[in-house]
Amino acid sequence: MKLKGKTALVTGASRGIGRGIAEVLAEEGADVAVNYVANAQEAEETARRVRAQGRRAIVVKGDVARRADVEAMIDQSWKELGPLDILVNNAGIETIVPFLELTDEQWTRLVDVNLRGEWLCSQVFCGRVLDAGRKGSIVNIGSIQAGKILPGRTHYAPTKLGLEALTRNISAEMSPLGIRVNCVHPGLIDTDMTAWVMKRPDLLPGILAQISLGRPGEAREIGTVVAFFASEEASYLTGQSIHVDGGWVAK
Ligand code: NAP
Fold it and tell me: What percent of the chain has pLDDT over 90?
């Protein structure tokens, strides 16, 4: 129980990697605020799984790209679950659009959610934690695309590389005050975001051949690393980014 007595907010926890993270944090002893933006029913299912571990869970609706929503969801979590110790910035979107066809609107929305959203949630979280005289931990969810080129991602990849810089820079300002900040870069994880790849026999074997472990990862395999970063076991780790990708980038 690495996180006994801790309270976490996981953004985008209604599905996929966020749900896997919420489940593992609960198994490690944390109460969890489950954020979502559209799928209330799925968020309730994640909360049910957290409660099944004997932990407390609430569901908080909010768009991570809107300051008012972020303030409201952190307020609600703090009121209903108590002071937050852990923020996992997981919410993200991916679209695949060739560079010459990408519109201003597509660029702006994706960068707003994937990069500004993580900055915004971190800023509001750190403000509350420090005002309360407490310490904390932030884990950002990036992507191997921070360092690997896949077609049609001229908007997505820069947000994930940007998260490394965001992680290092927030860490430099916040760690001296007691808030560690780290980043996990997932490889190919089986979720709704990648469901289309899993259904492509023409593409999937070629991708799996590049992954040393030869298989996609599971959301919980991201969750276990997040739980470690968030725990006291990682007390001397901050400003770091790690690939959890079955050896894809290393190969
Ligand atoms: P997913 O299955 O598509 O789930 C996305 C989650 O983010 C959902 O819970 C969704 O909520 C939430 N979300 C989307 N926009 C939001 C917003 N504006 N505000 C709050 N929540 C929002 O995606 P995933 O595969 O789990 O990916 C999770 C994270 O891992 C993302 O940052 C993604 O870039 C990253 N990642 C994924 C992979 C992969 O292979 N799957 C690889 C590398 C990195 P609703 O259910 O309410 O829509």
Answer: 100
